[in-house]
Amino acid sequence: TQSNIQELVVEMHSNQTAMEKRVSKIEEKLAQLQLNLDTLPELIARSITQVSAQQRQDADIRSIAPRPLSDFAGLRRSTNPRQRRPFQQQFSLREMPIYDRGSNQDKDDSPGPAFQVSEYESVA
After folding, report:
1. How far are the Cα atoms of 74, 97, 100, 109, 117 from residue 93, in angstroms, in the given order?
2. Keywords of this protein's UniProt record, alphabetized (predicted)?
């Protein structure tokens, strides 16, 4: 049994050594990740500064040198322009008072249906 105990102790010692190596590798990776995270805000700020400077430079170049119309000749709309709905006429021309007066000269002078006063309405 003592030999079994010695074997178990040796096996535990080797397992402990392997575990310590694995933990050490994990700690090194964590340290590297922490370093990367610490430098991240600076990298983001630098990147934003570079992009905004590039955009300002591009805007300055565009405003200084206008492009000729030939640069835009090949451009087309990606979508069709909105089509206008057809005009829906709500009344016919004959019902319009302007045309009624001129065309009804030979007819009686009674007002058309739109201008008749009902017996319930009185003209004051």
Report:
1. 46, 9, 8, 18, 21
2. Ion channel, Ion transport, Transport
In whole angstroms, give the CA distance from residue 47 to residue 43.
6
> Does any domain span residue 51?
yes
Q: Give the DSSP letter of residue 91.
A: S
Give the up-direction half-sphere exposure of residue 33: CA atoms within 13 A in the CB hemisphere.
6
Q: Which residues of the chain have pLDDT under 50?
A: 122, 124
In a domain, 105, yes or no: no
The answer to the question of residue 39 being in a domain is yes
One-letter amino acid of 63:
S
Residue 104: CB atoms within 10 A of its CB come to: 14
Model-level pTM?
Answer: 0.38
Residues 6 or more apart whose CB falls under 8 angstroms from that of 100 comprise 94, 112
Looking at residue 95, its pLDDT comes to: 60
Q: 35 in a domain, yes or no?
A: yes
What is the extent of the structural domain holding 47?
A: 2-65
